[in-house]
Write a structure and sequence with these properties.
Elements: H1 9-26, H2 29-37, H3 44-67, H4 72-88, H5 93-106
Helix pairs in contact: 1-3, 1-4, 2-5, 4-5
Amino acid sequence: MGLLFWKNNKAIDAFAQAVADDLYSYVQPDIARQHVSGRGDMSKKKKAKIEQKFTDIRLQIKRFADSRSLGIYGKARLQKQFNERLQELGYHIDVVNKITENFLLQNA
């Protein structure tokens, strides 16, 4: 890792925002909250599609981090920017925390 790790910040920020926007276009905040909380009247097919989208997003983030050889600081920035963008888009903090928890557990 080079000493100038912050040079990737613009690319990291842009990617995090794009991925969060992609999630928003597919899973609206209220639907995500119902899904994460386990409440709501969703069919198994709809739940499976939402889980698949979460998996796709997680894999996009992992591939980006791996392809850019992001270190700890880069990965932390990516997750922070992603979370902040989700909150800007109207996702409840519980949903953001659950998504983050799942990402961290799956990518550990």
